[in-house]
Amino acid sequence: MIGILPLLSIPAFYAVLLVYLARKGNTVREGFETRDRNEVRDDTQAAHSATIARHQKSINELLEQNQGREGAFLDSSIRANRNDRAFLIAALPNDSISPALLDTLADHPDRGIAAISVGNPGTRAETLSRIYAQKNFPDYFYQTLAAHRNSPPSVLRGIHRNPGVMSNLDISLAGNPSTPRDIRSRAAVAIRTCCA
């Protein structure tokens, strides 16, 4: 800026200086706006996490009261709260949910809910095969399918052959007892090569 001073008249210098300061001021203003947006997002996420934690606590207490009927209780509670995302996030990791309900929820329009349903240990092999064959799910579902003990060998072979945009699936494939032996061996070699 100082280098152009001899080339500019005093009014032109001030004009250039004002443009420069306006641009810097705009950058600072945008920084404050970004910080404010991030704070709002952080507060929203903290409230959402607190709601999930309250639901988890409530579900655990109610499961204690419904011993021997856990599956029926959870299925009816999930059906009653099907549109409550926080409740579903809290309930779906539970292994007492019926495979039929998990099959239905695997097609949930909220892909986060669908992913939790697919990852539930009670999800049937048929459901996992159907989800893999549909090809309209994001590639990050491959991670869940690769790690799921109920994934059929054909699904695991397909994921190994074509992992989409996902990387590092070898760890999940190598650790899954359902993975065919030849794929597990290749995955183990890839892990050793990668980490050596």
How does this structure look, described?
- The chain is flat.
- The chain has helices at residues 10-65, 70-80, 85-91, 99-105, 111-119, 125-134, 141-147, 153-161, 169-175, 181-195.
- The mean pLDDT is 88.
- Helix 7 runs parallel beside helix 9 (169-175) and helix 9 (169-175) crosses helix 10.
- It has ten helices and no strands.
- It is mostly helical and 196 residues long.
Produce a short descriptive summary.
With 196 residues, the chain is an all-alpha fold. Helices cover 70% and strands 0% of the residues.
Distance from first to last alpha carbon:
52 Å
Shape: flat
Main β-sheet description: none
Which runs of at least 5 residues are low in confidence (pLDDT < 50)? none
Q: List the total number of helices.
A: 10
Radius of gyration: 26 Å
H/E series, N to C? HHHHHHHHHH
Number of strands: 0
Please state the oligomeric state of the protein chains shown: single chain
Task: Tell me roughly what share of residues is in helical segments.
Answer: over 70%
Lay out the secondary structure:
Blueprint: H1 10-65, H2 70-80, H3 85-91, H4 99-105, H5 111-119, H6 125-134, H7 141-147, H8 153-161, H9 169-175, H10 181-195
Helix pairs in contact: 1-3, 7-9, 9-10
Considering the chains and any ligands shown, give keywords for the structure.
70% helix; 196 residues
